[in-house]
Amino acid sequence: MSDYQVTLQDHKLAAVNEMKSELENVKDIIFTDYRGLTVKKITELRAKLRAQEAVFKVVKNRYTKIALSQLKRPDVGDHLVGPTALALVSAEAGPVAKELVDFAKDGVLVIKGGIIDGNIFNADQVVEFSKLPTKPELIAKLMATMNAPLQNMVYILNAVPQKLVRTLQAVADKKGE
Question: SS3 for 150?
Fold first, then answer.
């Protein structure tokens, strides 16, 4: 009995390696079903995501599964079924998820799930994640909370001299009459 040999085709190996190199530089991935999107809509979505430091790419599911497994990323085989496009997020995933959820409201784009901070999210969790405030918004709220006691103290310290000045002005106005 002869041994069965698997011959790997060079173009397939190159495609998997290219996918792997793209996924190495990405923090988070959001999986979508792009079926029904026109070229114009995909171009519009890509422009919006590019502003958020993300790339929207149509992929082959099998190559993506192999690349993710070689990179030791979580198994997301159930999200890689049917026509799939990935939002590859380089910066923060929150704004990208918001853009995708807003775009999906038209009913054409369907969010399948994602890998965010190394955790597998289903479609509902991605939608809920998109509703969370972004990192800059949280920092702004924190800074406002930290500044509030100082601002209140400044208002109180300014109130005493202002009241004195107003009182003196009222006395001067009354004597002037």
Answer: helix
Distance CA(121)–CA(129), nearest Å, equals 9
Sorted by sequence, the CB contacts under 8 Å of residue 100 that are 6+ apart come out as 30, 32, 45, 49, 87, 109, 111, 126, 130
Tokens at 20, concatenated: 């792997």
Measured CA distances, 124 to 97, 111, 120, 129, 130 (Å): 11, 9, 12, 9, 10
* pTM for the full predicted model: 0.75
Question: Where do we find the tokens 């060079």?
Answer: 10
CB 9 within 8 A of CB 1: no
Q: What is the pLDDT of residues 92-109, one digit of tens each?
A: 889 999 999 998 988 789
Contact (CB, 8 A) for 27 and 90: yes
